[in-house]
Sequence to fold (286 residues):
Amino acid sequence: MSRTVYVNGDYLPEEEARISIFDRGFLMADGVYEVTTVLGGKLVDFDGHAKRLERSLKELEMDAPCTMDELLAIHRALIEKNAITDGTVYLQVTRGNPGDRDFAWPEPPVKPTLVMFTTAKPGFADSPLSKTGIEVITVPDIRWGRRDIKTVQLLYPSMAKMMAKKAGVSDAWFVEDGLVTEGYSNNAYIVKNGQIITRALSNDILHGITRAAVLRFAREAQMEVVERSFTPEEAYGADEAFCTSASSFVMPIVKIDAATIGAGTPGPVATRLREIYIDEMRKSAI
Ligand code: PLP
Fold:
């Protein structure tokens, strides 16, 4: 069945949605995005995603297409029109259509483009993979230097996903200067002697909305969190590993490259954090 999608003020059947070939999102990857999870028909951590969107726009000197309250209303309208119980809402803002191709940004700015669509993922909080855990490979991180901005420049992450697929695993962890930065679309963690270890925030990684919530819940549950970098070798010898993202929540990792992690099954810390995160997010969803 065709979805109803949102394009610059209009709700349309997906087949009728159109964007100009001169849109800078299309020509220059000059755009930012957010993916917000829907659980039980409600938005998970909308405020966190809205704040990160505002920050991404500011860092790129891009105008906001509307207020954050209007954005919330569009999210809710799409959830309702598409009868989404569990799934995601994708949002993309680009620097708009200046009418031609030019490296320089249009001055004065043109109207930003805003597109949004839903993806239904019935029951995805109970994903079978979360029970078995996933396997990952490590690949060189050759992305640009502002990974804290959530841009639509996703070619290399797509290539990393294909490398993982060809290796017969689900995910790839990026490694730069001998240290793990993050997953191709998630933040990366290891657990050793009860400590939850994850790279500190900087321009090197995306400031995950799920990461912020999971670290908060971990600290509230008296778990020890250490924000520092780690090597793949340290990860091979970890007791547990996991990753976090809006659409995978907390996902246990049971193998990294050739190394089986812990007992090769989801560890207690990742399993507990996943439970807490999903419970708390169901309660606070709006
Ligand atoms: N890191 C990268 C590179 C990502 O693309 C994502 C999500 O798309 C994340 C981390 C996790 O961020 P969030 O928890 O906000 O989904």
About this structure: Helices lie at 24-28, 46-59, 68-81, 129-132, 155-166, 209-220, 232-236, 268-284.
